[in-house]
Write a structure and sequence with these properties.
about 500 residues; eight-stranded parallel beta barrel; five-stranded antiparallel beta sheet
């Protein structure tokens, strides 16, 4: 006989039900609105901290409450596997969700992929949150509800992505994030790439005393990295120091702030220098790792700027064989100076290089995706309401030249089909230029206001995806399974 919360006439998400001594939890869809359901013994205190409507049912007390921040926090406090954890050097993947609706599809893809990938379902950069009007707490809570709905009990991470200032750390730490990606890109001096020796000396002289080239202990050294010899003569060291010295100092300062603010709470760090024009050379990678270690920074992953182009939501642009050769050197450095993972930022849809990334890193790899979940949301909308989708595309074209300025993208408006020429709206997501145009304009689309109030696009966009949540999840599962399968063999623990 069915007992507990399943015996009550509620439309429960089948994977969401969690039973503990004296209390059952589940997610219910009542009149098209998702709500938290908690059934407890009459005299139990397990409903404390939850908000909602109470009633007596089958000899117990039933609470039906909103998917609120308070209820999300209370649920994480009761169910251990909803609390973000650390993945360390385990093969991992970040699955960004700009809409707050994608986690169910991400969970299904992760479950279908099998293997031992550590998922990070709560992942958002401060730039993305600013553009969508979301907060770190909303990102965390949306992931919590998605994981709860799908009954994923294998552990989750939470990535506060591309943090630039201490206040970013504080906001994300308060929301419960455990993985902190520090982005010192503003402190990388790209002019060092083409500077002559005299200019390199001038740039290096401006570094703080503890970042001066002579303080590194690298001058004149030859370092063997798995059979490859890297030389630190004066020009090589000066170039690395001039280019990355201030960036490393910034990472060290942010790491010290995080350690103090966390006050004993678990956390792990990623260092990101990928959003620069020039690739990170092997010598520069060694310089960064050596300096981070010398300054007392502990990190689990690093995102160099690899050769080729990692543009948003499209295939790798470059020679995959050359990328693998370059990656092999970086992976060897990561093993020798760590071990730590190499992180593939803007990693969405780079299908041609995933096998090489897993092969060369031997599982010491983190895949970071973001806007492709938004794009699959648009694909879902295109199949349901093509006219509305084309209105979004028309607006995206109008915003592209402004919104592209903070991204490394190469899409051109003149190469993208005109809205009136589109005969297959879902298929537009497969055209390179249109896909990037739609990708980088997400913030404008989601925050544009209608003349009479409300969202010009966002209200209907969310209504469609919520009304067709299962179709959206099916599309996401299919798309992300292609991302995850190459990484699903046993990674390094």
């Amino acid at each position: 006989m069915t007992t507990g919360i399943r015996a009550i006439e509620l439309r429960l998400a089948p994977h969401s039900v969690v039973s503990t001594p004296g209390t059952d939890y589940g997610l219910t869809d009542t009149d098209g609105k998702k709500r938290l359901a908690v059934l407890a013994d009459l005299n139990s205190a397990s409903l404390d901290g939850f908000e909602g409507e109470h009633s007596e049912v089958n000899g117990g007390r039933l609470l039906l409450g909103p998917l609120s921040p308070g209820n999300a926090a209370a649920l994480r406090g009761r169910i251990a596997w909803l609390q973000p954890r650390l993945w360390g050097t385990r093969t991992s993947a970040g699955l960004g969700d700009r809409l707050g609706l994608a986690t169910p599809g991400h969970v299904r893809a992760m479950r279908a992929a099998g293997g031992s990938i550590g998922p990070i379902f709560a992942q958002q950069s401060m730039r993305e949150m600013a553009r969508t009007g979301r907060t770190p707490q909303q990102v965390m809570d949306d992931a919590t509800w998605g994981v709860f709905q799908e009954g994923w009990r294998e552990g989750i991470g939470a990535d506060a992505d591309h943090l630039k200032i201490p206040a970013d750390i504080d906001a994300c730490l308060s929301a419960g994030f455990t993985f902190f990606t520090i982005d010192p890109g503003e402190f990388v001096d790209g002019s060092a790439e083409t500077a002559d020796l005299s200019r390199l000396r001038e740039l290096a002289a401006k570094l703080p005393a503890d970042a001066q080239p002579r303080a590194t202990g690298l001058l004149g050294r030859s370092i063997d990295v798995e059979g490859r010899t890297l030389h630190f003569d004066e020009p090589a060291l000066l170039k690395a120091a001039a280019k990355y010295g201030q960036a490393v100092e910034h990472v060290a300062a942010m790491s010290r702030h995080l350690a103090q603010a966390a006050a004993g709470r678990p956390w792990e760090l990623e260092v990101s220098v990928d959003e620069t024009e020039q690739p990170t050379s092997a010598v520069e990678h060694v310089y960064i790792a050596n300096e981070l270690r010398r300054l007392g920074v502990e990190w689990v992953s690093l995102a160099p700027r690899f050769i080729g182009r990692f543009e948003k939501g499209v295939e790798y642009i470059g020679d995959p064989a050359a990328f693998e050769t370059d990656l092999a050197v970086h992976a060897a450095i990561a093993r020798q100076f760590g071990p730590y993972k190499l992180s593939l930022h803007s990693g969405s849809d780079k299908f041609s290089i995933y096998p090489a990334a897993m092969r060369q890193t031997r599982g010491l790899v983190h895949l970071k995706t973001a806007g492709t979940s938004y794009l699959e949301g648009l694909r879902t909308i295109a199949s349901i309401d093509p006219e509305f989708f084309l209105a979004i595309y028309t607006f995206a074209r109008e915003r592209y030249e402004i919104d592209r300025k903070s991204y490394h993208v190469s899409a051109q408006l003149e190469r993208a089909p005109l809205p009136e020429a589109v005969t297959d709206p879902p298929g537009l997501l497969n055209q390179f230029d249109a896909r990037e145009i739609l990708h980088v304009t997400f913030g404008s689309v989601l925050t544009a206001q209608a003349p009479g109030g409300g969202g010009q696009f966002s209200d209907r966009l969310w209504d469609i995806l919520q009304a067709h949540a299962d179709l959206y999840a099916v599309n996401l599962e299919a798309h992300f399974l292609r991302h995850l399968k190459p990484f699903s063999s046993n990674g390094v623990r």
